[in-house]
Amino acid sequence: MIRVAVFAPPNFEPLARLPHDPDLQFGESVDGADAILMSPRYGATLRELWPRMTSVRWIHSLGAGVETFPFDLLRQRDIAVTNSRGIYADGLAEFVIAAMLWFAKDFPRLIRNQAARRWEPYTVERLQGATAGIIGYGEVGRAVGRRAEALGMHTLTLRRHGGTPIDDLIAASDYLVLSTALTPETRKLIDSGRIARMRPNAVLINVARGAVVDEAALVEALQQKRIRGAALDVFEIEPLPAESPLWGLDNALVSPHTADHAADSHERAMDLFLRNLAHFRRGEPLENVVDKESGY
Length: 296
What we know:
The protein is an alpha/beta fold and 296 residues long.
């Protein structure tokens, strides 16, 4: 008998696909559980559950981000941690390209002019020949890079073990794309000093985590038009508070953390879990193992 503790929203429809098998038991208690299936929003509860997780050997996150997991504790035991990285990469990369086009073609101007019934030809920009600097070259970063290069863009990349030095990458980028994991090292990685290194015509696009950017410094740069704009799918506080200045900025594109929410996203996350569950039952290597030392 393998016992799996499940922590996910009750309206997470793919839970109905959990297999009915006499050798599997799904429930809400970690007492005696061999594994945990968890939505990322419940990650912080692992700390309080820790004393009761004596038999847990595997934790799977239905999301890609695991920054809320208590890795200081998880490193103390032989518990495998896996996540859903990769399944959201295509959707996020498409959002990034859409954001680039939003600014390059000045779609806000089209919307304003259409609403005003105003015929006003203007000059647009091509993405071809522009430079995309990608910080975080994992599944999402590579998906962005493939699409950018297909459009004739130049790409600069920064990953954990190499790539273009970050300050050089920022200074050379027309579009600065953040797709890195949130760790203690990447928290507020893009601070006021690095924002100041951006080109005046540059656009910051964040599909990583809100805390990777010093949001107050970004707001100030946008208000003062020191950079061209920002497209943000993630924020320091979510939902984005109504009083946030970002809502009212004409050079900010605000997305409610839904850039990767395609109709089949949850189903694909469940597919990955079920594959890993089969691996776990057979004692096989798991997919998408998280490095507990680095935290992603």
